[in-house]
Amino acid sequence: MIEHLYLRFAESILREALTDTPVVLIHGSRQCGKTTLARIVGDELGYHYLSFDDNNQLQAAQIDPIGFIESLPDKTILDEVQRTPEIFTAIKARIDKNNQSGQFILTGSANVLLLPKLADSLAGRIEIIPLRPLAQAEIYGQEPKLLKLLFNSKLDASIMRGEYPRLGETIADIICSGGYPRAITRANPKRRSIWYRDYISTIVQRDIQEIARIRNLDTLPRLLELAATQTARLFNAADLSSPFAISRPTIREYLTLLENIFLIELLQPWHSNRLSRLIKTPKLHLSDTGLACALMGLNSRSLWQDKTVLGQLLETFIFQELHKYADWHDEELKFFHFRNKDKVEVDIIIEQGRQLVGIEVKASATVTGSDFKGLNKLKEACGDKFCAGVVFFDGESILPFGERLFAIPISFLIPKTK
Questions:
Q1: Could you give the 3-state DSSP secondary structure of residue 123?
Q2: How far is it, in rounded angstroms, from Cα 42 to Cα 174?
Q3: How many CB atoms lie within 10 A of CB 150?
Q4: How remote is the C-alpha of 355 from its chain's centroid?
Q5: Number of neighbours of residue 33 by Cβ within 10 angstroms
Q6: What is the mean pLDDT of the segment spanning 277-296?
Q7: What's the rounded Cα separation, in Å, for the pair 394 and 321?
Q8: Within 212-306, where are the H helices?
Q9: Position 273 pLDDT exceeds 90
Q10: pLDDT above 90 (res 202)
Q11: Does the pLDDT of residue 3 top 50, yes or no?
């Protein structure tokens, strides 16, 4: 039996999906907890487990995918399926014979949705559950409610009367820890950095080589280090390609590869016909701030001392926390950023259907009306579609700054500090 270390809010989604869908895919970066989640549920429900990290199983599936799939029990977990896309057509054939729900739980550490064989064979037969590194709410076992409060306009007086502690230097420690389960169990920051270093080495030496045979393998760790310094900034391929003797298109391909294995993420720009001079460049975010700190050689003390980098990583931290919460939200949410050529911006925009919430992030303990400049611009453009605008800051109280505008302490997102 797998030890259940952390509450994963995706567990209830997985259990529900298995009741009405033949194949459920859990996908996310390596070591984010996919296998643990699959086995916690699978062991309870009687699933047989196989991993394609086992070369014997991998070879058998690659040589005779139909025979391999036909030999499996009615309920099977197949771990790391990106290593053997040959099986997808065989899974389809088996499901076409028997459309019973909950036949397969798949996990993948690369975005297997981009594989044509999967898109062609399992469309309409598969549910995809994204899994990211642990959210603070999962680490401390408290279900987050912020997104529901914002979209339902429920920041009422009882919540606003609450007191929330300032984090101070603690926020740097939280950012440096990240969310990978095996990393955060290491209390020693040096040992945690070693874990992240080995993690990157393993991914580059094995996973990336399996997905795409590339010549300049030593470029990828250096490119990822450079990308870490650009987190929460507008994506600029020229800046990222300049240190390397490699063409810009090749650098773009490498960045796409890092995106496909869930190490970086591009936040697309928001568009509106009611606003002019909008910048149409995406923002780059690392998938995990602990990983970003390790790549930049930062510990909590050095991060706390560099307020510019702290601001960048705090924005990425809050973006990733909210994205994790969105994975469990009842409605589909889409994420964007907004900036115009006058440098008026909103760090994060979240859309739920026709409704919208804007988020700004500050590392300081003070907030003023000028911090709401971008949110006010967004509010004017969206009218009734605008549910709320939030400036996260390191304060102690939720403060109103006008109709549907609030300053919210960062500690509101971190259950441990409440």
A1: coil
A2: 32
A3: 24
A4: 22
A5: 25
A6: 93
A7: 16
A8: 219-229, 237-241, 248-260, 289-296, 300-305
A9: no
A10: no
A11: no
Separation between Cα atoms, residue 352 and residue 336, nearest integer Å: 12
Neighbours of 88 (CB within 10 A): 24
pLDDT tens readout for residues 367-389: 999 999 999 999 998 989 999 99
**Longest Cα separation, the chain:** 66
Higher-confidence position of 4 and 175: 175
The structure tokens listed for 230 are: 């650009």
Spell out the residues 6+ positions from residue 390 whose beta carbon is closer than 8 angstroms to its own.
Answer: 150, 357, 358, 359, 360, 375, 405, 406, 407, 408
List CB contacts of 288: < 8 A, sequence separation 6 or more.
29, 133, 178, 179, 180, 320
- Give the list of residues 6+ apart from residue 279 with CB closer than 8 angstroms, or none: 234, 269, 339, 340, 341
Assess whether pLDDT exceeds 80 at residue 54: yes
pLDDT value at 119 more than 60 = no
Which residues are CB-contacts of 190 (< 8 A; sequence separation ≥ 6)? none
Whether 318 and 348 have beta carbons less than 8 Å apart is answered as yes
pLDDT tens by residue, 244-263: 877 888 888 888 889 988 99
3 state SS for 30-95: CCCCHHHHHHHHHHHHCCEEEECCCHHHHHHHHHCHHHHHHCCCCCEEEECHHHCCCHHHHHHHHH
Measured distance CA(41)–CA(84) in Å, rounded: 23
Quote the pTM value: 0.93
CB 374 within 8 A of CB 360: yes
Q: Is the pLDDT confidence value at 41 over 50?
A: yes
Distances (CA, A) of 99 to 16, 49, 62, 93, 303: 17, 20, 24, 10, 53
At 220 the three-state DSSP class reads helix
Cβ burial 153-167 (10 Å sphere, 16+ → b, else e): eebeeeeeeeebeeb
Average confidence (pLDDT) over 345-356: 95
| Helix ranges restricted to H, 297-362 | 300-305, 307-327
Q: Where in the chain is the domain with CATH 3.40.50.300?
A: 10-130
Long-range contacts (CB closer than 8 Å, 24 or more residues apart) made by 329-333: 329/147, 329/148, 330/148, 331/151, 333/147
Mean pLDDT of 107-125: 72
In CATH, the number for domain 10-130 is 3.40.50.300
Q: Rounded CA gap, 246 and 248, in Å?
A: 7
